[in-house]
Amino acid sequence: MSDTSERTDGAKMIEIGPLADLAPDSARRVDVDGHRLAVIRIGDDVYVIGDECSHADYSLAEGEIDSDDKTIECWKHGSAFSVETGDPTSMPAIKPVAVYTVRVEDGVIHVEVSS
Ligand code: FES
User: Fold this and answer.
1) 73 C-alpha vs ligand 1 centroid, how far in Å?
2) pLDDT at 6
3) Does ligand 1 come within 6 angstroms of the Cβ of 54?
4) Pocket test for ligand 1, best of 79, 89, 94 (most atoms within 8 A of CB)
5) Topology given in CATH for the domain delimited by 4-113
6) What is the pLDDT of residues 61-70, one digit of tens each?
7) Every domain of the chain and the residues it spans
8) Predicted model pTM
9) DSSP string of 10-33?
10) CA-to-CA distance for 65 and 63, rounded, in angstroms?
11) Which one of 8, 22, 35, 80 is at 20 to 30 Å from 66 when CA atoms are compared?
12) What is the pLDDT of residues 28-40, one digit of tens each?
């Protein structure tokens, strides 16, 4: 987290690291500014969703990615979540997880979080 730019509405873009450090079709948990995030790379696209499964407190970043469906599956009970919308696509989870705006600039991933 070497760079932060804050906006007037309190949201800010936070640098979370080089894209090259995240292998294609992999995910990593990152904690920034009180937000627990699952940073997911599918091909060269990066998605950031809330890391905590909406069914129980398990890390989605430890789940398996389906790069065709653009989902990540909670390893505990098998609910899959869309990395684009945060919506669960299978039971038992029924609530969405948060979706964060992400930007890759000059090979560096930035995520927008609120204060
Ligand atoms: S904890 Fe994720 S599906 Fe149950």
Assistant:
1) 9
2) 64
3) no
4) 79
5) Rieske Iron-sulfur Protein (2.102.10)
6) 999 999 999 9
7) 4-113
8) 0.92
9) S-EEEEEEEGGGS-TTEEEEEEET
10) 7
11) 35
12) 999 998 999 999 9
